[in-house]
Amino acid sequence: MEIIIGKGLELIKQAQAIRHQVFTLEQKIPQELDLDGLDEDSFHALLVEQGEPVATARLTVNDDGSSIMARVAVVEVYRGSGVASKVVKALIEHAQNAGLDSIEIHAHSYLRRYYEKFGFKFIREVEVVGEHQLIEMQHQIVRT
């Protein structure tokens, strides 16, 4: 199992393929909502198992030292195996190493407790995407 973090075109294509399967096909979220134009300016984490990309997430860095984690997705056969947690932890570590101050996420409301395990705090309910209520959460990065 390997986690790659970067901005390369091939990495973006592999991440988008996972997201298309999970968000567009499975969750029925319109593809234009996923392809928001931020991929090229963001860091992508891709978890690869036996040569196959199986999980991804994206971190967009803002000029003020904050960042936004989004597009956390895992192919169906790997759900429940802990790979999403590995990707989330890798991006939190990447944000710490980059000297960022915070990470914001808009997550499905049913994932609130999951993200709280990583230190995210609930802020408020935000938009509904497709049939999914999203909540805003924030993780303050502690300098070590």
Automatic annotation (TrEMBL):
Designated name of the protein: GNAT family N-acetyltransferase
Molecular function as annotated in GO: glucosamine 6-phosphate N-acetyltransferase activity
UniProt keyword Transferase present: yes
PROSITE patterns documented for this protein: GNAT
N-acetyltransferase domain: residues covered: 1-142
PANTHER family, per database record: GLUCOSAMINE 6-PHOSPHATE N-ACETYLTRANSFERASE
Keyword terms, alphabetized: Transferase
Coiled coil: none
Signal peptide: none
